[in-house]
Amino acid sequence: HFCRECITTHVAATKKCPVCRTAAALSDIQPTSRIVNNLINKQRIRCQFHGRGCGAVVTVETMCSHENDCDYAPVSCFYDCCPYQLFLQINRRDLVPHLTTCEWRVMACPFDCGEQFQANRMNSHNNVCVNAPIACQCGFLVKRKDMSSHVTTECSLAAIPCEVSG
User: Fold this and answer.
1) Packing angle, helices 34-42 and 60-69, rounded to 10
2) Is the entire prediction scored with pTM above 0.90?
3) How far apart (Å, rounded) are the C-alpha atoms in residues 5 and 25?
4) What is the pLDDT of residues 34-54, one digit of tens each?
5) Please, which residues bridge with residue 116 across strands?
């Protein structure tokens, strides 16, 4: 006995019975009896994602609903360029933690300059961000855009010209 989807796909592709290998057509496929269906549906089988870590053993009739929600089903990252979107997949249960740390996620500047960039470009952005704090020689942290003003008007180590000597 085969499920409807499997037997239909096989016969449509090969035009042969999968058991005896004689010629077969889709019209030759007959539904199984209710008793046989009930027996098959009560059989317990491992989840197809067993190799990814799922230990569930479920009945044939509940397999589809389990696999649709299985924590070990393979899923892809949402972010462009991430290897887990392009050619790798991760378990469904690991997707949310991955999305919060993915180096390809888009994030806003932590210094509120209005720029957005991929997380893996944060250091290069911070090196040029006008709102990034940089250390003055006096020990104060000052926004990059305010440093020249700080040095000329506020910095305790700034040289002050003597107006007495001429």
Assistant:
1) 50
2) no
3) 14
4) 898 888 889 999 999 999 999
5) 108
